[in-house]
What does this fold into?
Amino acid sequence: MIVGCGEWGFREMEIPEHFHIAKRFGFHYLEFGIGGGHPGRLSETLTQEQILAFKALGREHAIKTPFCCIENDFTLKDVDAHESMVERTTRSIRLAARCGATHVRLFAGFTPADQMTEATWKRMLQAFERCGAVCRGLGLQISIETHGAIEFHADGSAAHTHSATTDPKCLARLVRELPRAIGFNYDPGNLKAVNPDDRTHALDLLDERINYCHLKDWRREGEGWVACAVGDDDLDYASLLKKMKFDGVYLIEYEPLADTEDGIRRSLEYLKKLNVDLRFA
It folds into this structure.
């Protein structure tokens, strides 16, 4: 099992620090992001000079960056806003390819599943087909993250609501209607937080289509949920990892900002206890 380092917990750090931290842990794979306006994300208006500087960081630290997170929502109700979103996303896909990515993490969108109309479904599916055509021309793979719609309570905890990529019936429809070349970024922690009673974490629906993976957990706190490290709560990764057919890089995605390095360390320590052949390259 090859493990790499996710980028979301680094979102408020300058990008060179991402590489320094990953290097200290011994990672050889590091996820990066484009867009979203965070200091730890590459700009959507990258220059060639900035792309070369980013790639130089990878060479300097002996770290590969094939996994790129792009911020998008293909379930917008406004048609013009949707079209602008698709165009922006395809531009970011082209930038990801220039940065050396092989996989682009996209979202389906954050409209709650019970508010999805047939018109919204049609636009969303067509958006993925358009992005898929761009990716084929660039040699990239699309990975749709399993991610619910999230709102935050006053205490900072998160309320997760089913979206098109967490609701079982919607997921089954996506698997059935999307081209097979379009895969999924399997995030069992997100699936747990939106549907804690499903101990399969939708693996039965997605196992054959997983081409990207985030590892984390969520625990109940206050009015809702807070993200935590692998092993910090009750997601049974020991059983789940044994069942998964995915043989790519498993990215540890520790989200909290206050103890980023300690959360990554705890995640690695937990994984080492699972009697898996843990490797970094």
Q: What stands out?
A: The radius of gyration is 18 Å. The mean pLDDT is 97.
